[in-house]
Each structure stands twice: as C-alpha cells, then as structure tokens.
C-alpha cells in the first residue's frame, strides 16, 4: 500500500469536520437541559429522559453505521460519501431540537423532543462514524495521525468555543428584541448553528481521500454481531474506553451543571459566557503542549497531566461564593480548561492506535467498527449525564426560574464539584494501565506489514511477541 503525502491543507481539511462533533455536543450539553426545563417547561426528570430514550436507537444505529462504512463501495469512497449526504439533514435535525413547542400536555412535549433528539442523533451517527474512521485511512504514520487528531481537536475546541459562548449571547440579544417572541430566540440560534455545523463538510470532502480497501463480503447477521464482540478481545481498547468514558462523563456533568451553578449558587448568570470563554480558550491553547508530550512520552502521559490539572481546578470550585471576584472565577476556569484539553483530545487521538492493535488480532482494518462504538459510547455517556442531572435536580427540589432553597444550593454545589472529580480519578486509574508508547506503536505497525506480506506470527522476534501480548492481552501467535 502506497500512501499519499499528507499536507497541511489535508490536515486542516480533515480537522474541520469536528466543528460539528465538538460544537453540537457542547451546545446541547450546556443549554439543552435549561431550554427544556426553563423554556419548554418539561419536568427536569422528563427532560433528562428525552436524551436517554434517544440513545436506545443509538445502540442499533452506531454499530450498524460502523459496519456500513466499512463495507459500502461507491465511487465517492466508503467514508467520504456520507459527508455529502449529511449536509442537509444536519441543518434540519439540529434546527428541530430548538422549536419551542407549546402544549399543556407533558406527554406531547416529551414525545416531540424525544423524536427530535432521535433524528439528530441518527444524522450525527451517519456523518461522525465515517469521519472518525477516516483518520486511520489517511496515514499509517504515528506522528501524522497525532497531527490529524490534534487538528481535529483544534477545530473541535474552536467550535466548542463559539458554541459555548455565542449561543447564550445570541439568545440574550434576541430576547431584548421587540421583533420576535423570546421563546423563539433559541430556534433562531439553532438555525444559525445548524449552518455552521453543516457547511464545513464540503471542505472535509474535497480535502481528504481514502486508502485502497477491500470490501468485506460478510452478510450474515450473526457474523456482524460477532465482529463487534471481538473488539473487546483488545486489552488496549478496553483500557482506552475507561479513559474515554471517565473524561467525557466528567466533562458532561461539568458543562450541563455549570449554568445552573453560576445562575443559582454563585448568583451571577451573566458571567456564564465569560467563564466558558476562559475554559475553551485555555483548552485550545494547551493542545500543542499535549501533542508534543504525546509524540515524545506517549498519550497516557499527556492524559495524566491534563486530568491532574483539571482535578485541581474542580477542587478550587469548593471555595467560590457569590462574593468571589470575577477574576478569581476566571482563573479557576482557565485551570479547568487547561486540564480538560487533554481529556477531550487524547481519547480520540488513541482511536487509530487501538484499531492498529486490533489488526494484530483480526488481521483486518476495522476502524469503522471501533469508530461506531466510540460514537455510540460518547452519546451514551452524555445521555447518562443529562438523565442523571435531570433526576438529581428533581431530587434536590430544583424549581425553574425561582430562588432555590439553601439545602438545594448546597447539594447543587457538591454534586457539581465531586461527581466530575470522582470520574477524573477513574480516568487517572485507567491511564496508568495504558501501555502504548510511540516505540511500541512502531513495533506494532512494522509487525502488521510483515504479517500482511506473508510472514508467520510464530516467526516474530521475542520483543515483538512481548509487545503484542502486552497490548492485546493475548499470547501472540
């Protein structure tokens, strides 16, 4: 297999795809719960359940999309074809989430927003599963893949920056306008950001390619199910999942509760955009450092450093109050964002590596399956977070748009701080167990090429066998 030269233009074009992935999830994570509870009027527990019900479909659609993108054969490629197909559905599905439906029936409201979320989630799957798989099909070089992942995270966090700051500003500006009803400010915001998320896919399609591939002719349903089961034979993938779930669950709890924490506990709702700006700018600024650490010391080292910084930031939140000066709050937000950067970037940077390790087991390039599972697990993690938050807000007697009881505020504070902190500690535990380094990655890639060229596994050197056993969890050969 000969590789094309991956230029800066290609790296930037690839990275632009995660404007959708990074922005849409963050916008939903920060504003969708408060939209459902304070604008639509849904009970917090029902609002959280909207997302959970939508994820039941993901259990089918995400792995199925991974299989489809591994096996479809078109003149536009098996991954990139979905970038073109998805442009219009992205606009429609994201806009539908923010329609301020008016009804006295909680059931009607619940059903509409559940189906709207299912529609959005399906479109997201259709585009993002092939996109995540494309990284491994642009290059087999460790450093190039890290650059691709870093570009992806840079665009993701740039999108998170505008998606975390501008929507609230836009909503507040529209609320002050006499031309529209305040309830429709979220809908206009949704239309604007649906275009921001949809149009970059033209750039991604034109600036990328796919390496030559062979379509898997497997058609039996039982064989498809078995393929997904086999990814859990991969020891490094299971450890990677622990790192991924821990970091993203912690981020989801942080982002979803942040606006409630600032509005009701700190009593400074107007500073929300500035806090998000501090978090997201510091995330972006730290990406080059984590990329450098990843390439020299390994991705687990970068992840460990980042989550340690993030944990210190979360502990600092315990000492904030309504009397805390704004500059101190911003400093803590910068600390949190500096650590969160690694938690967001590293798990996706690891994905091509664990799919390479899978080739030692399966002798097949199954990046689509891994990408499908990653996308599914990402959405499940956010669903669990938002559902849990809805239940928690109900249990602590949260009442929308009113002053809260002192006990409610105390519970809100401790949940906001300690739930992410506990998840960060789990992430550090899994990171300690992740043993892939740049050197071991190179050994794996060299061995894959040797076996594909006709070499036998039992002819591998002692060092190769030890590395393969360590990373796969199985005796090599």
Cα-based radius of gyration, to the nearest Å: 22 Å
Q: What structural class results from the helix and strand content?
A: mainly alpha
Unreliable stretches (pLDDT < 50, length at least 5) are none
User: How many domains make up the coordinates?
Assistant: 1
Distance separating the two termini: 24 Å
Please tally the β strands and state the result.
0
Mind describing the biggest β-sheet?
Answer: none
Strand/helix succession: HHHHHHHHHHHHHHHHHH
The CATH class, by name, is Mainly Alpha
Gross morphology is globular
Strand portion, in percent?
under 5%
What share of the residues lie within helices? over 70%
**CATH level 3 topology:** Growth Hormone, Chain: A
CATH level-4 homologous superfamily: MFS general substrate transporter like domains
Essential attributes:
single chain; 477 residues; mainly alpha; Growth Hormone, Chain: A; 18 helices
Structure characterization notes:
The protein is mainly α and 477 residues long. It has a single domain, classed as Up-down Bundle (Growth Hormone, Chain: A), CATH 1.20.1250. Helices cover 76% and strands 0% of the residues. It has 18 helices and no strands. The protein is globular, with a radius of gyration of 22 Å.
């Amino acid at each position: 297999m000969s590789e094309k030269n991956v230029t800066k233009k290609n790296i930037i074009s690839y990275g632009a795809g995660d404007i959708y992935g990074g922005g849409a999830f963050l916008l939903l994570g920060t504003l969708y719960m408060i939209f459902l509870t304070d604008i639509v009027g849904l009970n917090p527990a029902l609002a959280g359940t909207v997302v959970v019900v939508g994820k039941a479909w993901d259990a089918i659609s995400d792995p199925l999309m991974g299989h489809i993108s591994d096996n479809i054969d078109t003149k536009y490629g098996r991954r990139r074809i979905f970038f073109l197909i998805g442009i219009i559905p992205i606009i429609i599905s994201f806009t539908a989430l923010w329609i301020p439906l008016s009804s006295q029936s909680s059931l009607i409201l619940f059903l509409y927003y559940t189906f709207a979320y299912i529609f959005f989630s399906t479109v997201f799957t259709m585009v993002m599963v092939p996109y995540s798989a494309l990284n491994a099909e642009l290059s087999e070089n460790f450093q190039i893949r890290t650059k691709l992942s870093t570009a992806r995270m840079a665009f993701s966090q740039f999108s998170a920056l505008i998606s975390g700051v501008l929507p609230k500003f836009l909503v507040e500006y529209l609320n002050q306008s006499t031309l529209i009803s305040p309830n429709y400010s979220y809908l206009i915001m949704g239309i604007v950001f649906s275009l921001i998320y949809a149009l970059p896919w033209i750039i991604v399609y034109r600036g990328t390619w796919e390496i030559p591939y062979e379509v898997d002719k497997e058609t039996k349903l039982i064989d498809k199910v078995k393929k997904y089961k086999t990814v859990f034979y991969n020891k490094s993938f299971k450890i990677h999942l622990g790192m991924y779930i821990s970091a993203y669950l912690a981020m989801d709890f942080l982002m979803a509760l942040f606006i409630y924490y600032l509005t009701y506990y700190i009593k400074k709702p107007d500073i929300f955009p500035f806090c998000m700006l501090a978090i997201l700018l510091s995330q972006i600024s730290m990406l080059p450092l984590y990329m450098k650490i990843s390439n020299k010391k390994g991705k687990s080292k970068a992840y460990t450093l980042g989550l340690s910084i993030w944990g210190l930031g979360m502990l600092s939140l315990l000492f904030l109050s309504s009397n805390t000066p704004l500059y101190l709050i911003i400093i803590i937000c910068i600390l949190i964002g500096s650590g969160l950067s690694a938690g967001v970037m590293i798990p996706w940077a690891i994905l091509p590596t664990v799919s390479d390790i899978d080739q030692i087991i399966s002798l097949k390039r199954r990046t689509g399956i891994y990408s499908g599972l990653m996308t599914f697990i990402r959405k499940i993690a956010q669903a669990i977070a938002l559902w849990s938050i809805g239940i928690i807000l109900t249990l602590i007697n949260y009442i929308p748009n009113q002053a809260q009881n002192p006990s409610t505020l105390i519970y809100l504070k401790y949940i906001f701080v300690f739930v992410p902190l506990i998840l960060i500690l789990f992430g550090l535990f899994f990171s300690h167990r992740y043993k892939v380094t740049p050197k071991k990655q190179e050994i794996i890639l060299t061995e894959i090429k040797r076996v594909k060229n006709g070499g036998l596994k039992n002819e591998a050197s002692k060092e190769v066998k030890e590395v393969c056993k360590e990373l796969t969890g199985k005796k090599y050969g």
